[in-house]
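Duplicate of earlier report; Fc receptor like 2 input re-posted below.
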Amino acid sequence: ILGIIEIFASFADWVSIDMPYYAYEGDQVVVRCSGRDNNKIKRLTFYKDGAWLPAYYNTYIISNARPSDSGSYYCKAGRKVFLFIDDTEQTRSVWLTVRELFPAPQLTTRPLQPTEGASVTLSCGTQLPADRSETQLRYSFYRGGYTLRSDWDSPEFWISEIWKEDSGYYWCEARTVSHSVSKQSQQSYIQVQRIPVSGVLLETQPQRDQVVKGETLVLVCSVAKGTGKTRFSWHREGTRESLGEKSQRSQRAELEMPVIRESHAGRYYCTADNGYGLIQSEAVNVTVRIPVSRPVLTFSVPGAQALTGDVVELRCEDKRASPPILYRFYHENVPLGHTSAPFGGGASFNLAVTARHSGTYACEANNGLGAQRSNVAVLHVAEFPPKIRLMNGPHHCEGRVEVEKEGRWGTVCDDGWDMKDVAVVCRELGCGAAKHAPAGMLYLPVAEEDQPVFIQVALCNGTEETLAECEQVETFDCGHDEDAGAVCEGR
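Output:
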């Protein structure tokens, strides 16, 4: 018996356990048991805290260590010692501590209470142990059920612009590149602050209260403060109609009116609202200025026919252009002078004519929006007065017919007076076509009693250039109650 005891004693501590005393989360831990002669081992079992562990041959592997794997490890080996005698030996116990590779990250926000439109930095903070500082981590960031960024190599994530609808719960996740260790932060609620709109202002581009007809006008609505999506609306005073509406994340918006008409003149305002109530701007008055068009030049003398010494009024007019208007007058393209119409309409220039004033005339209108010149008009100035005239009519192409003989003016009797006679008178005066042959009594006052009646009957065939060329019967029994009259076209 003593010999058998000696044999067993010689086999003592023939099996041993080999494993680390500590590891980090995610590490692979190998627990290995072996004897002096592994070929003699009949059965080898592994235990943790007294509980059996499944193992393959002489190795038990923890592929992804967790803190729960911490504990006391040992193994047992059995073999045949002598004849029918088996021996079982247990190794010493080794305590394994699985350390935390890194704590659960904490999500921090800069700034803590962001306002709309601002940038926000999310930081996913954690700490590796000194002896594992080279371990690479990847970070992911989440909001609600959405992934903001996945497998990011930086613990910080930058949001360029954040809006009120982005308010919610945010969290982050840190994990190793191999995904063996992964930890999430607690959820943090981010409340994005919205600033109500204020200081609503309406401006025009070009920046003036007057716009030229046909140009483009841009109405710019802006706010001094306000964040988020703002609804801008443009209106004209006195109407309920909205000219336009835009919703955008901006502190200004533009409404373009491509072609301005006269009817667009009036007062305009805009409103802005980002959910805290409608704010209205002050009204801006828009005046539509009308550029000058081609003005019309007219002469005060009928038929553009004047006599030496006459005062001729040159009238230049653009009835629709916006005032003030400056008119310039030209004779044969040489400036005569200028005059202004401060309240719009036309303007006149008076000219005492001589024979040298015959020729072409034009005028030019300019109200600061570009000059326009009239069509050319021709004025004829006769150097010697005619031997015939029409008196007391509205113009010199209508009135009582008078002729001149030996320096005296006398009338013509209406005996046989007809349109052929009137046609000759109109031709001689340069007054255009004949229109009527009225009685001279219509043009008051009647001729003086001592004024002679030079012609009793004019026998014109209508083709003569002057009344003097017609056959005539000298007067013998005609009074001024029978004086002849004439009406010419006069233009």
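Residues 46 and 54 are 7 Å apart (CA to CA).

Merging into the original ticket.
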